[in-house]
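It is worth pausing here to work through a concrete case rather than discussing structure prediction in the abstract. The textbook approach is simple: state the sequence, then state the predicted structure, then interpret. We follow exactly that order.
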Amino acid sequence: MIKRATAAHAFALAKVHREAFPEREAWGPDAFSLQLGIPGVFALLDPSGGLILVRVAGEEAEVLTLAVAPAVQRLGIGSLLLRSAMSKARQAGAASMVLEVSVSNEPARRLYQAAGFHGIGERRNYYPDGSDALILRTEL
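Step two, the predicted structure:
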């Protein structure tokens, strides 16, 4: 069951992030606490092992991170988190949503494409491993 996360959930959010990302890319509890203290930022948490962190600024929302623990990937958790976040961002006044995804992350790219995202640009050498990021956008 997806729930809205607060700074009190920072350790749970960090645990999921650590499971889903390489150590050099994983966010700790302090990063989540800091982000959740910024106006317009919200997080959704699926206690079985998923999270999404989004910032809404005016008419645009940005997915800051989406993570699903490997043990529960391919069960629809990422899709449910993304669609829930899109709905909440729309309710907060956003008309569009953007995000970055690694060119090599095919499962995530398929998830975003299925949710209506399309490419609008690229960031060279964006990730710690040197891979490029695709910038994706969708209307809400």
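Step three, interpretation. The beta strands are 3-5, 41-46, 50-57, 60-68, 96-102, 118-123, 133-139. The radius of gyration is 14 Å.
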